[in-house]
Specification:
two-stranded antiparallel ribbon; single chain; binds zinc ion; 4 strands
Length: 228
C-alpha cells in the first residue's frame, strides 16, 4: 500500500459528474467514467495489495456506506481494489488508513524476510500505533495470508506474484552494484521504473532500498517520499 494522490484530472472531473447524475436518480456508482478515473489514479493497481496482474477489479468504499447515499456516491470514498482484497476487507477492518490522505510508507514498513518456502515471511512493521494503522496491518496480514481455505489459496498466488516481482527487482539491484559505470545508466533507468508509484508492490521495493540506504545511496534518492 502506498500513498496515492487524488488529483483533479479530466477523467476525475468526468467521474464526479457521472456520480452526481447517478446519485440524483439513485443509480449505480459503478460507471464507466468512475472506472476509468480510478484506473488512472491508482496506476492500474489494487490499492491494498498493489498487485497489477488482476483480471477482476472492483470499486470499493473506504468507509462502508451501509445505505448512506452521501458516502455511496462520494468520489473521495471510492477506491480501486482487486476482488481478493475487497472480499477480505468487507467492512470488518474499519477504520483503516486513507492512502489518499496519508503517506502509508511512513506509518508501516513493508518487508519480506527469509527465502523459499516456510522461512519466507512478509512483515508489516507499525511505525505508528493509531487504531487506523493497527487495522490496516491486520487487513494486510489477512490479504497476504488469507483466513478461509479459499482465501489462503488466493493469498498464496498473490505472494507468488510478489516474490517473482521482488526477486527480479533484487537481481537488477545486484547487477547495478556490480556494473561498470557505462552499464549503470541503463540499470538506473530500469530501477527508477521499479521504484515509481506505478510499479507493482512499490512499498516492498522502496522499503528494501530504505533498509539498505547506506549500500545504495543513489537508489535511495529515487524514493519520492518527504521525510523517510
Ligand atoms: Zn488486492
Amino acid at each position: 500500500m502506498i500513498r496515492v494522490e487524488r488529483r483533479e484530472t479530466e477523467k476525475s472531473k468526468e467521474a464526479i459528474d457521472s456520480l452526481k447524475r447517478e446519485k440524483s436518480k439513485n443509480g449505480s456508482y459503478n460507471t464507466l467514467e468512475v472506472n476509468k478515473a480510478l484506473r488512472e489514479m491508482f496506476h492500474g493497481k489494487c490499492y491494498i495489495c498493489e498487485n497489477k496482474q488482476v483480471t477482476s477489479f472492483q470499486i470499493e468504499h473506504l468507509n462502508p456506506h451501509r445505505g448512506n447515499v452521501d458516502l455511496k456516491y462520494d468520489w473521495n470514498n471510492l477506491f480501486l481494489v482487486c476482488a481478493h482484497c475487497n472480499n477480505t476487507k468487507l467492512d470488518r477492518f474499519a477504520p483503516i488508513l486513507d492512502c489518499t490522505k496519508e503517506n502509508i510508507e511512513e506509518l508501516i514498513a513493508f518487508r519480506k524476510k527469509g527465502y523459499f518456502g516456510t522461512d519466507e515471511k512478509l512483515i508489516f512493521d507499525m511505525l505508528d500505533f493509531r487504531i487506523e494503522t493497527q487495522n490496516t496491518v491486520k487487513l494486510l496480514q489477512e490479504v497476504y495470508y488469507g483466513s478461509t481455505a479459499q482465501k489462503k489459496m488466493e493469498a498464496a498466488i498473490l505472494r507468488r506474484i510478489l516474490r517473482k516481482e521482488l526477486s527480479e527487482f533484487k537481481e537488477y539491484v545486484r547487477e547495478y552494484k556490480e556494473a561498470e559505470e557505462e552499464e549503470k545508466e541503463d540499470l538506473r533507468c530500469l530501477l527508477q521504473q521499479h521504484l515509481k508509484d506505478s510499479s507493482p508492490f512499490a512499498a516492498f521495493k522502496r522499503w528494501l532500498i530504505r533498509d539498505n540506504k547506506e549500500a545504495y545511496p543513489d537508489l535511495f534518492m529515487y524514493i519520492d517520499c518527504g521525510n523517510c
